Amino acid sequence: MASPLWLGVYGVLCLELILTLILLVPLPERVEKGMVKILQLPNFISGWTFFVRFLAIALVLAVYDSIRTIKYMESKILDDPETLTGVMANSLDRERRFRAQRNLYLAGFALTLLFVIIRLVQMIRSNINLREELKAISSQQSSTAPSAANQTTAGTARRRN
Amino acid sequence: MLPLPHTVWRSISKVLRTSAVDSALTFIVRFLVVGLAIGVFDSVQSIQGLQEQISVTDPNDLYSAMSLSSRKQRIFRAERNLYLAGFCFALIFIIRRLFQLAAKNADLVDEIKIASQGTRPTTANQQPSSVPATSGTESAPTNTTDQELTEVTPIENETEASSGHEDGVPRQRRGFTQGSDS
């Protein structure tokens, strides 16, 4: 039976994979804006920060635990005697080592995806802000251009008079 | 992942957009995607096969119990390989998306710079338009407009160089040519 800790890590990984998939797909601007608005809410930010920190610490501990187990199992495999019981123990140790390696990749993948999601959200947010800034500048330009044209026509009209 | 400056991203995207690098990268990425997809598929298949074998084994039989351990070992190995291949597979798409977003951001920063430079000359051009109203009121209008045109020309050149008008004819010049014709 799988341990609840690694089942939890597996659940987190699945959740992160879904989130990453959503962020990887180039969504329409309206949806992205809505997402960023939700992420910029103060209550959400405080809850999100706490959750991310907790997850990061837990996953780092899981990675550390897996590495320690792998090292311990590797040293044990080398020390096993070449008797029948030794061979059986060796097989069990190899099983545990593969399990620890699997857990290492599981926790490492989840930890990496956590940082990837944070970075993707940051980049999408900055992208939206830059687009809005560009829109504001272009609208400012379009509003100043007619006034400049009006002034030139007024100048030519005076010259004619 | 690191928040590098936009100039670095711009140079990276420039290098990547060159045709030789682009075609080579596309080939490598396609090859990797196909290879990793096969790896993931193989791991999933072997996990399913081993799980079926484990469900069939008799726990009372000693030989079966020994083979159960080796099968479990193989299952964990296959699961490890699945995570490894899946991780690489996911990372390819993540890297691609990150590059896209970074290049987009660098382009937007450039566009904003150009647009903000373009706003300055339009506000500066409002000053020469008031010149004919004060200087060319009583004397010969054609001569003064010619003088004004020579005064305004350097400013126009500046606006063309900085703002980069697409049609190549700024608004100020159009206004003055109309005035001199009339």
UniProtKB/TrEMBL annotation, chain A:
Low complexity composition bias: residue spans: 141-154
Gene Ontology CC: endoplasmic reticulum membrane
Known function: May play a role in anterograde transport of membrane proteins from the endoplasmic reticulum to the Golgi.
Protein name, per record: Endoplasmic reticulum transmembrane protein
Region (Disordered): 141-161
Family named by the database record: Belongs to the BCAP29/BCAP31 family.
Keyword Nucleus: no
Transmembrane segments: 7-25, 45-64, 104-124
Recorded superkingdom: Eukaryota
Keywords for the protein's UniProt record, in alphabetical order: Endoplasmic reticulum, ER-Golgi transport, Membrane, Protein transport, Transmembrane, Transmembrane helix, Transport
Domain BAP29/BAP31 transmembrane: 6-136
Presence of keyword Iron: no
Compartment list: Endoplasmic reticulum membrane; Membrane
Single Gene Ontology BP annotation: endoplasmic reticulum to Golgi vesicle-mediated transport
Membrane topology: Multi-pass membrane protein
InterPro entries from the UniProt entry: BAP29/BAP31, BAP29/BAP31_N
Automatic annotation (TrEMBL), chain B:
Claim: Membrane is one of the keywords in the record: yes
Taxonomic superkingdom: Eukaryota
Annotated stretches, region: Disordered: 119-182
UniProt keyword list: Membrane, Transmembrane, Transmembrane helix
Transmembrane segments: 20-41, 81-99
Limits of the BAP29/BAP31 transmembrane domain: 1-112
InterPro entries hit by this protein: BAP29/BAP31_N
Bias kind Polar residues: ranges: 119-147
Listed name of the protein: BAP29/BAP31 transmembrane domain-containing protein
Lineage, broadest ranks: Eukaryota, Rhodophyta, Stylonematophyceae, Stylonematales, Stylonemataceae
